[in-house]
Specification:
Number of strands: 2
Organism: Candidatus Flavonifractor intestinipullorum
Structural class: mainly alpha
Subcellular location: Membrane
Shape: globular
GO molecular function: transmembrane transporter activity
Protein name: Transporter, divalent anion:Na+ symporter (DASS) family
Strand order of the largest sheet: 1-2
Helix content: over 70%
Distance between the termini: 35 Å
Membrane topology: Multi-pass membrane protein
Number of domains: 1
Radius of gyration: 22 Å
Length: about 425
Amino acid sequence: MVVYLWTTVDTAVPSLIGLGMMGLLQVFSASDLIALSMGAYTVGIITATAMLVDEVSEAGILKKAAQWFISRPVVAGRPYVFFFSFALADFLVGMLIGFLFSVLVFVPMALGVCESIGVKKGEGIHRALMVLIIWNSSFGQIAAPFNKLVNLTAISALQSMGYSVTYAAYMRVLLPCTLGLFVAGLLVVRFVVRPDVAKLRTYDPGVVRAEMKAAPFNRRQLYLTGGFLLLIATWLLTLFDGFFALATYFNTVGTAVTALLVVGVLCFLPADGEPVIDLSRALANMPWKVIVFLWMIYLTSTGMSMEELGIQTMLVQLLGPAIHGIPPALVVLLGLVLCSVMTNLMSDAVSIIVTLSVFLPILSSLPGSTIHPVVFGLAANMISQIGYLVPSSSPICPLILGPQITVKQGFCPTLIITLAGILLGFLCVMLFS
């Protein structure tokens, strides 16, 4: 019932009702319910990093980073070098702060570029920039697990089902896939969208450089930048666990601890007479609906793997006969396709949880299957975030495209990217299993 309400009503309110019903029906004891939902490790990461990312975005720091890419002299008079630089900046910012904040940085920037060269909304260059923003903001978000809701949801779900997932393993699988999608996106713009790039040859990157020079960093921006880069550095160090002592130390400490420490110090550190992060304002801007949704996600994903509840056994007994004799590779492909269909109809977090809950028990029960469950889970995580075929798949996409770009104009390029994602995900599972 909660899954149905997630797709038709809201994510937060049904989650609260679901948590209450779990306790009322004594599926979990009160202490276990609180520990497995509100006390989940990933909730700590999201809580701390959401505050920091919001402050960094509000301070305009990442806008300046993005401007640096599109203000390089090499882009002058070279439209597809500009598209490459713009897409790369979007991809990297998406890796750092996720889809939504990346979109908020790049859409105004793209509109400013279009206005400066006389391109109207709906024209080829505008269409190309808008689809590049949608694609690369999500590709970047997928590429790195740090502080991204859906990525951490998938990792936590896999861990609660008994599988070990490290950040290094995550990026080893999905970074090559997303780089492949990055290249595919540029090729689709070049050969499918095919914008008339004549006006883009008049783009002057010197104007952007002058704008950046006129507004240098203040002390608060410098402190926020330093804290953000320090946090990212400690997270990246965990990728080298076992190679040297400092990396092993930070991996042992955990990413949530370093996030809480950095935010705490910035709340204490003064800049221009006030704290770098105003805690009261930061708490007021927290994505509480997302956090409440996370409580329910972590509780249910843990419940899926509990032997005493028998949910996985039931799914295997129910669906096992229907897939008996089907090659494991075909089951993988079916799982990824269904995940893609679901994510175009409902929340990406919901679609990944449903996919993992149904297909992981099935894959583990197939005789002779060598499919690695973690790799399948990560591939499904990627597919769950490539869902923008129809306006209902993401409330952000219609706002980005606007009425000037029709569903028909965006469907074909996006369908190619969706199919490329499924193909890359399938190949990834086959190669790493």
